[in-house]
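User: Please predict structures.

Assistant: First:
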Amino acid sequence: MNDNKIKRFTIDTVKGVTLGVSVAIPGLSAGTIAVSERCYDTIIDSMSGFRKKPKENFFILLPYLIGLLIGAICAFIGIKKGYEVAPFTLTGLFGGLVIGSLPIAIKELRKADNTKEKITFSLSFIISLIVSAGIGIITALCKISLEANMDFHIYWMYPIILIAGFLAAFACVVPGISGSMTLMIFGLYQPILSLFIGDKSIFKNHDNNRLITAILFMLVLIIGAIFGLIVSSKLMKKLLKDYRVSTFYAILGLIIGSTISMFINADIYPKYLDNSIKNWDYIVGGVLLVVGISLSLGLVYLDKILNKKKEDDDRLETASTTIVDNANDDNSDNTNNI
């Protein structure tokens, strides 16, 4: 491996670490981070074309996967510790990150000038809003606690886990939507952390029943995630090409609906009822809500700057090419005249 390849591998691995952190943090979109780091198209193209050129695309994706794993593990450990001390503080921060990503969708909606399609746009927005907000509210009101059932073989959990894995992977590909936020809405985020981190983890408790449940849990989740990645990489490419505005109306609905679900879901709703959240937690959570919005808006602004720079570079390159071509044509004409 030459120096350029080593440098490229290292840079892509570091980008993968930031993607891993964004995957672990509810509200921070891996798709948005990938766009701002200018690796979104590379990853999507490699995923969608994996079957045609598996070896080539595997080595393109490998550094991102290595970095993603490192970043996600480090972030999950920190988040688990934080939730035990200040659940609303972290929820406020994550909610702010979601709200701050709204300009990504709004920017695309300005292109919606087709009056005939406005009904379609509205339906896309309303349906996605109801679905994303409804899932969190239903899990909260029905008191669906998957974590409480982790030690038992309750088979109705597995279809939910499969769907959640599919949607979480799908969400990771969509700019502005968070995969881990999807798991939080389904009430799966804390159960996953508890399986591997903390006093109830399978590494500290030698409970065969819990170990078997954990293996089945993660296997079903991974199967759902694999299908989600396969479908989303192809579907998003198609939707953004042929139905871009409608797709971003749906994304806007998902962002707003998921913000509601982050504050009303099976993980945090019971804490409101039993008054286990301290007053200082609510205050700090409110402050970090603003901080999260600012951070997310900063990423959107960074992406705007990078895109503008790319457009300027492309225009400069095009202008330079045109000048060189014209010069060559002039030299050719002079030669012919001689």
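Second:
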Amino acid sequence: MTRYLIVENERLAREELYHNVCSLRPQWECIGYAETVEEVVGILGKNKDINLVFMDIELDDGQCFEIFEMIDTDISIIFTTAYSEFVIQAFHLNSLDYLLKPFSVDALENSIKKYEYYTYGVGQETRKEDSAEPYIPLGDWEAPKANAIPRILIQQSDSYNFIPIEKVRWLECEDKYVYCVDDKGRKYLTSFKSLREFEHLLPAEMFCKLRRNVIASISSVTGVYKFFKGSLRVCLCAGDKEETVVVPQPNKNNVLLWLGMH
């Protein structure tokens, strides 16, 4: 079970966040609240079984970044703040997400899903509807397949077209539809209903499934970084479009093998 701490010095914001988390994940346990840097340091120092912190940045006695100068922790953090200028600092702390106030319940739900997926993997502490397509790695890197498709059919309004495989940068699944992003960063709806249909049709030397809903081309990868709890942060680029994908720990070795890293 997930045990979480809310760090927030505004009472109404704290109560609203608690109410929304309880509504979204009633099985989780809130271990308490904190309003100052000093309180957070004390709580995290005494409680080693806290899994997640919802963290405001501006606290009563300073900024939350001071906390991480005093203690060493790899705890999962979802920042909740009214300030956009601290994104880079949050990134260096391996934050899981950065929610700008006022944020919606849907945005909070998406952040919680990220936590669940990166921490537990699909099928554990996830909602039933999120488990319709369980996480299955592509398997070890292998030689190019004889039946690899040379192009992908896309839908444009009331017509069809195709994109050559070499121009595809990544494929992503959203709301049971599969989209293709080309080398210019343009996003198209494909005729496929699941990424599983693509897995054995793409040349394995070019494509790899990074996570349950993303298959990327090697030509889109601009950076690979270690992330918390054994996962990876992979940066993708297509034209002016940039995306960051977190590869969960169970698929880490497969992705590194595909990239030629050992």
